[in-house]
Design brief:
Helix content is 34%, strand content 23%. It is of the alpha/beta class. The protein folds into two domains: 225 residues, P-loop containing nucleotide triphosphate hydrolases (Rossmann fold, 3-Layer(aba) Sandwich), CATH 3.40.50.300; 159 residues, NAD(P)-binding Rossmann-like Domain (Rossmann fold, 3-Layer(aba) Sandwich). Helix 4 packs antiparallel against helix 5 and helix 12 packs parallel to helix 13.
Length: 422
């Protein structure tokens, strides 16, 4: 069957994959287009590797079919397939006596003669493949001497030397430190954009997949449960269900996972806005606090972070001036909290009510920890209140550790009379 212009690079039609007639994934219908980055996401054991091994013809399908550029995968001659598809699996390999250049040169085997003689084009392709993964400086090094990050880049270079249209990778960043993880993912993303290569990779990092993928497949319970653009597929509910999250939540607007608190360390009210509170919310969750926050506009970054962390959010619609109804709700939450934290947000006509809430907190006798600058703090009436001026979040962490309530951590609870301006 010849390839037409409408043929996808790879297509699965009713594909069922598994081992020894035992299905792992059933009835897969997916198409993968040229130049796309496709991420396979799911818990361990869901079948991501089994699917990749079937797509790469390491395993035969149990039923259904796979087409590569319009041709039946199982019927393709091995040399034809190698000119289209390259594969990087998780197996750690350490070939003896090979330099990096010689190892990458192995990727040219679909294009050389029976003796493996390298011509000018082959040598150019090897060099360009090393340059594409920022590893040209490693060419003369023994492959066995490389770090994990360097090896992974060289494995990708060997695959690129095949000049493939399709690149399959199984957990390409699993053994890498942060620097090499980011570098490898950037390289793979750029290959899609600059060379039109279709990349299909199994990944564990949902936040990375959300940022680099054109399509994602969510794999669980013997099926591809969702397939499509990450902006549509990676919803909070879909990711929570995929990984059975309990105290975590994926937020598509933030492009990452937030870890919720058990709330056993006390409760804080956080006066924030204009992205001033995000780092404070995360600190409170890390320290085991529950929190309420407001009054926030619903398009504020602070709202999305606080909501993902399970905070009680008092809000008004975007662009609206904070009103009395929202302020009344904030008063109720203030009364229930052990401390109040002022994140130092700028005050203007649209949020002046939040400035009034600062005064309300002091009148209630609540300890008010403020990250406001000293000059800005002087504009508040703090003479008769328990106002604690702090320089930064690090001081806030130390102060909370020494203040809030001792019954959970064996700490001595300090009352307002013991508090001093820091």
């Amino acid at each position: 069957m010849s390839k037409s212009n409408s043929d996808p690079v790879l297509a699965c039609n009713g594909l069922t994959v598994g081992y020894s007639n035992t299905p792992i994934l059933r009835d897969i219908h997916c198409t993968f287009e040229q130049g796309q980055f496709i991420s396979l996401l799911g818990p361990n054991g869901a079948g991501k590797t089994t699917l990749l091994r079937t797509l790469s013809r390491h395993l035969p399908p149990l039923s259904g079919s796979v087409a590569v550029m319009g041709r039946e995968l199982q019927a393709m001659p091995a040399l034809d397939l190698a000119r289209i598809m390259a594969v990087v699996l998780t197996n750690k390999i350490s070939p003896p006596l090979f330099s990096v250049y010689e190892f990458v040169a192995l990727g040219r085997y679909p294009h050389t003669n029976y003796l493996g003689t390298l011509n000018f084009h082959d040598k150019e392709s090897i060099l360009q493949s090393l340059q594409a993964v920022h590893a040209a400086n490693l060419a003369s090094r023994p492959f066995s001497d490389l770090s994990d990050g360097e090896r992974q880049k060289v494995l990708v270079a060997r695959a690129l030397a095949q000049e493939p249209k399709l690149l399959l990778l199984d957990e390409p960043t699993i053994h890498l430190d942060l620097k090499h993880r980011v570098e490898v993912m950037s390289i793979l993303r750029d290959l899609c954009r600059t060379k039109g290569i279709t990349v299909i990779a199994s990944l564990h990092d949902v936040d990375v997949a959300a940022k680099v993928s054109d399509q994602v497949a969510l794999i669980k319970d013997s099926s591809v449960q969702h397939y499509g653009a990450p902006e549509e597929v990676l919803t909070q509910q879909a990711v929570t269900t995929l990984y059975d999250f309990d105290k975590a939540e994926f937020n598509s607007r933030l492009g990452g996972i937030e870890l919720r608190s058990d709330g056993n360390s006390g409760k804080a009210f956080v006066l924030a806005g204009m992205a001033s509170g995000s780092h404070v919310y995360r600190m409170l969750a890390k320290k085991g606090f529950s929190f309420a926050t407001g009054v926030l506009h619903t398009n504020d970054l602070d709202f999305f972070v606080a909501d993902s962390l399970g905070g009680t959010c008092i809000t008004v619609p975007a662009m609206e001036t904070i009103n009395g109804t929202a302020t009344a709700k904030a008063h109720e939450q203030l009364a229930q909290c052990d401390v109040v934290i002022d994140c130092g947000f700028a005050l203007g006509n649209h949020n002046m009510a939040n400035g009034e809430l600062l005064q309300t907190a002091l009148e209630m006798g609540k300890p008010l920890f403020s990250l406001r600058t000293p000059d800005a703090g002087k504009k508040l009436n703090t003479q008769n209140g328990n106002y604690i001026q702090l320089k930064n979040v690090a001081e806030l962490i130390t102060t909370l550790d020494n203040y809030l309530p001792g019954k959970q951590h064996g700490l001595k609870t300090a009352g307002p009379a013991h508090m001093k301006e820091v």
